[in-house]
Amino acid sequence: GNSVTQMEGPVTLSEEAFLTINCTYTATGYPSLFWYVQYPGEGLQLLLKATKADDKGSNKGFEATYRKETTSFHLEKGSVQVSDSAVYFCERRGFGNEKLTFGTGTRLTIIP
Amino acid sequence: EAQVTQNPRYLITVTGKKLTVTCSQNMNHEYMSWYRQDPGLGLRQIYYSMNVEVTDKGDVPEGYKVSRKEKRNFPLILESPSPNQTSLYFCASSRDPGNTIYFGEGSWLTVV
Fold this sequence. Notes:
The complex is a heterodimer. In chain A, 0% of the residues lie in helices and 48% in strands. Chain A is mostly beta strands.
């Protein structure tokens, strides 16, 4: 079946550090790719998405590029803040596929 | 305000005692789904519904039932809960599976 492999956490960084959270996916079909953020005590919120190869999703300083050649969708941010502390999930969604596949989540903690 | 509302948010129950977690959305979305979130496993889809009276199994449907009698409601039913169903549950909805998914705030369920 389809799968998403996400960088294991937890990840701890200092404020203003560069962030990368890795995500790779199975390439069957033409999936869309998503990143979500989950703050403590809340549900998941869509952070960014990309629907085809070479698309770049971006939001709140975060970016991820849909790379078909490496089947990756790594999340990056140039300078993290304490408020970015959360759990991040990568998701793969096939065209017309009602079954969504999530990664295991990566807990990110930013220290001042 | 666009919302997905789950109840209860927190519940401790005993093995075998039937329970229902309600989910309601006010966005007139056709697609609704249920997930459980467990450490190291991320989110796994339990059931989904493409529209009223249309439901289908996700990746982990065993021990759960759902119904979709009205567009706005999608309750999750545990007929005979067991301790391995202790988890954090999320309901979600979207206009269709290809669009942005909105999550509820989650329901913590403990089965003792």
